[in-house]
Write a sequence for this structure.
């Protein structure tokens, strides 16, 4: 479970990235984070990943609890979370297979298990034939699939997806959404987007953000600008 | 291993710089280490043969000399006291001058002094024994190896001090060069490190490839340095044999174990190899830790 209790992120010059954010997300729940650019979607994802530290409030993720104080179990926390970055963050010198495998190597999985899970993830995301290629040889859609594959291997319970369809053409974006639909059965997913079509196609819980505040928590799904 | 080799090949100039400095450091350190252990062995050899020689005036009666010998034995500071009579001294002189009969003709047993050769139990007893006998009647001159031991002690101490300074300097220089080289590589991979951290990589996981690469360089440098060092030692073995003809072997004690340092032998060569490898390991581990620490 992910829990935010009155979490705020304020920068020294007075800018507010997030204010009084309080919500809970159950295990295996699919939640959209929507809102215009600068609303605080990425801030929430960064807070969960402990890439950003809250200036106020407490965040609890399963048995991890942290606030603005020093938190030493960062690597342990991150090993539970798969991330699909907006800019993919694929390692340029490693092949597709290696890029996905690294997510499991970090957690110390044996080679045999790594091979098995990576092959399954490649099949799920439809890029089995690209596993020996390098990032420079892939399209944006294919890179996004590599990023998703990397996020789902290694038994990561939580998937954070930051605008995963943002740079993609509509057809590829729908393909990616279908992958997330399959993943939604067994993983907690936080999906940041401002694509209303995508949000409305899969009617799941929506957290609407504006100017760093959660202005609506629509548990029945659906979103209108 | 393939990853390490690829990484080293991708940055040939940095690899060469780091390897050269490490090689130079290990070669010099190894050389100094061999010289120091050799001198230590030599010092030990001289120290284990502490001897005072007491020369008597030619007219001193034998019974007086024997009385002094008994007094020395009674002190329990001597292992052995050997009496060399005037006749025995002449025989020794004969052996020394067998190639120069003219010198022998000019000498007779009655002008050579009788003497006592005293083997001390410990080197520190030498001055005490020398002082004890020097005031006795009939004693003409007392000689012992004070100067030789002092000179060797001074030499070893000077070399040890100079070597410590060199070790420190070489180590500092190697660490700086290796840290800088690794820092360049790490800076190039900063984004990659950031991604790994976001995926949950621990510091040791991120550090591992850089440490492995650095240690590999250290091993390569140690192997190269030792090839040259061992080659030099084996070459010098025959040259030094003529200088140390009377010395069968030199040893140093490492707590309970006695290690033979001369003539050069396999255990000593392996010991030198181990010391340089450990030195190399320390430098490479410290450098890689320092370089990666900035980015973790």
């Amino acid at each position: 479970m992910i829990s935010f209790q009155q979490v705020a992120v304020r920068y020294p010059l007075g800018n507010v990235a997030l204010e009084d954010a309080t919500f809970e997300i159950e295990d295996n729940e699919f939640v959209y984070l929507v809102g215009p650019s600068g609303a605080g979607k990425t801030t929430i994802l960064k807070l969960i990943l402990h890439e950003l530290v809250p200036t106020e409030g407490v965040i609890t993720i399963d048995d991890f609890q942290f606030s603005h104080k020093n938190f030493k179990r960062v690597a342990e926390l991150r090993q539970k979370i798969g991330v699909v970055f907006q800019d993919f963050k694929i390692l340029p010198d490693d092949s597709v297979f290696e890029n996905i495998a690294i997510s499991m190597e970090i957690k110390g999985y044996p080679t045999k298990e790594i091979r098995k899970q990576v092959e399954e993830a490649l099949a799920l995301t439809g890029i089995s034939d690209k596993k020996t290629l390098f990032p420079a040889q892939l399209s944006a859609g294919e890179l996004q699939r590599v990023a998703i594959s990397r996020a789902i291997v290694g038994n990561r319970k939580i998937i954070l997806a930051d605008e995963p369809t943002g740079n993609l053409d509509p057809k590829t974006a729908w393909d990616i959404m279908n992958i997330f639909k399959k993943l939604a059965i067994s993983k907690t997913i936080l999906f940041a987007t401002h694509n209303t079509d995508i949000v409305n196609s899969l009617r799941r819980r929506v957290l609407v953000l504006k100017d760093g505040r959660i202005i609506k928590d629509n548990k029945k799904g659906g979103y209108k600008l | 291993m393939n990853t390490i080799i690829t990484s080293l090949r991708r940055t040939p100039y940095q690899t060469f710089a780091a390897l050269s400095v490490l090689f130079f450091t290990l070669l010099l350190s190894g050389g100094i280490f061999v010289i120091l252990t050799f001198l230590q062995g030599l010092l030990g050899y001289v120290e284990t043969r502490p001897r005072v020689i007491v020369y008597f005036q030619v007219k001193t009666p034998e019974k007086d000399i024997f009385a002094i010998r008994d007094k020395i034995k009674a002190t329990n500071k001597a292992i052995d006291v050997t009496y060399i009579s005037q006749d025995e001294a002449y025989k020794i002189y004969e052996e020394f001058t067998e190639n120069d009969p003219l010198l022998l003709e000019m000498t007779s047993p009655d002008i050579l002094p009788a003497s006592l050769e005293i083997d001390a139990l410990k080197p520190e007893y030498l001055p005490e024994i020398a002082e004890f006998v020097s005031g006795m009647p009939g004693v003409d001159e007392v000689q012992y190896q004070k100067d030789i031991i002092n000179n060797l002690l001074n030499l070893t101490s000077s070399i040890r001090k100079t070597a410590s300074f060199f070790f420190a300097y070489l180590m500092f220089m190697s660490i700086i060069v290796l840290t800088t080289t690794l820092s360049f590589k790490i800076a190039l991979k900063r984004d990659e490190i950031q991604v790994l951290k976001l995926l949950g990589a621990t510091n040791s996981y991120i550090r591992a490839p850089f440490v492995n690469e650095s240690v590999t360089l250290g091993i390569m440098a140690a192997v190269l340095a030792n090839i040259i060092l061992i080659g030099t030692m084996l070459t010098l073995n025959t040259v030094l044999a003529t200088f140390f003809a009377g010395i069968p072997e030199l040893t140093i004690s490492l707590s309970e174990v006695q290690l033979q340092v001369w003539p050069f032998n396999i255990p000593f060569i392996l010991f030198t190899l181990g010391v340089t490898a450990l030195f190399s390991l320390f430098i490479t581990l410290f450098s890689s830790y320092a370089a990666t620490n900035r980015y973790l």
Summary: Chain A has a mean pLDDT of 90.
